[in-house]
Design brief:
Radius of gyration: 19 Å
Oligomer: single chain
Largest sheet: 7 strands, antiparallel
Number of strands: 9
Order of helices and strands: HEEEEEEHHEEEHHHHH
């Protein structure tokens, strides 16, 4: 079963990779495709597109690891059974940092945690994941469509999923020390195991991945040709600092990777390669930020 599950997650990674590669048709980007192993058990495949015409940085990661002690960051629920024989964790994570500030940053991840029995088979499991959007120069039409597509998908599974997952996203992607949300939300779920079986759960994660790709491509293709000014690019780089702050201070995925002794380069590949912090802000920055905060610090749930 574990080999079959890994195959499914690798297929999800390839789904994203094959579509994102199309944004770099001139092949100017620096592309890394690294397979790695973890001393404690397991490994993964990290695919990075950097310094391209469309992407400043984009990481599409697959990992499947196992060990004896489940890291605290994975404990989204109280376990009914002890982790006597170890755990298995596998998933795909995606982060897109485009060159053009009119194209939002986006993030997606899908993951499975399994508790192993004495035969090294998964006997207790739960899933998590979701996706969110972080615009710098926001377009209301894009935000509304982003949420609508998520709602349309989730309503096919459970009419309560969207409202619950969207609110989870608002609550989770929150930069507490800034009193700001990271972006305009999306969906976020954890501790999900109410499927007929694990295979139905994987189909759900595959649908999440497909919906993310479709929704993000619609926005990216619509905005990638918009001309941008030096001021708008500077604003994007400074606001990326907020993204880095969230990932390093609050993100459970980053914490899990570090607690499980994961591969540091892969864990931090989600950070923007070009980012700025500045003590003194220009008036142009302050004006753009005031407009952005009105957008990100509100509920966009449809």
């Amino acid at each position: 079963m574990i080999n079959e599950l890994e195959k499914k997650f690798k297929q999800m990674q390839f789904m994203v990779r094959s579509e994102f590669d199309k944004f770099e048709p001139l092949k100017k980007a620096n592309v890394s495709n690294d397979e790695w192993s973890r001393p404690e058990g397991g490994g993964g495949l990290t695919y990075v597109i950097a310094d391209g015409d469309f992407f400043d940085n984009c990481a599409i990661n697959f990992s499947s690891i196992f060990g004896k002690k489940l890291p605290e960051a994975a404990l989204a629920r109280s376990l009914k059974k002890e982790v006597d024989y170890g755990y298995r964790a596998m998933g795909v994570s995606v982060i897109s940092h485009p060159v053009n500030p009119h194209v939002p940053t986006s993030h997606m991840n899908v993951r499975l945690f399994g508790i192993l029995d004495k035969n090294n088979e998964i006997h207790d499991w739960w899933m998590g994941g979701g996706y969110d959007l972080t615009p710098f120069i926001p377009y209301e039409e894009d935000i509304v469509n982003w949420h609508k597509s998520a709602k349309d998908l989730l309503n096919g599974y459970d009419p309560n999923f969207y409202s619950e997952f969207a609110q989870n996203c608002n609550n989770y992607f929150n930069i507490v020390h800034r009193k700001e949300r990271r972006g305009v939300g999306g969906i976020f779920f954890d501790n999900l195991s109410n499927f007929v079986d694990i295979h139905e759960g994987i189909s759900f994660l595959t649908d999440i991945t497909s919906c993310y790709i479709k929704s993000y491509l619609e926005i990216a293709k619509k905005r990638e040709k918009i001309r941008f000014s030096n001021i708008e690019k500077e604003f994007q780089l400074l606001r990326r600092g907020r993204y880095a702050e969230f990932n390093l201070v609050y993100d459970r995925g980053t914490t899990f990777g570090l607690q499980s002794n994961g591969r540091i380069e892969s864990i931090l590949a989600s950070l923007p390669s070009n980012v700025k912090w500045s003590y003194n802000k220009t008036q142009e920055y302050k004006d753009l930020e005031a407009q952005l905060l009105k957008v990100i610090n509100r509920d966009w749930n449809v």
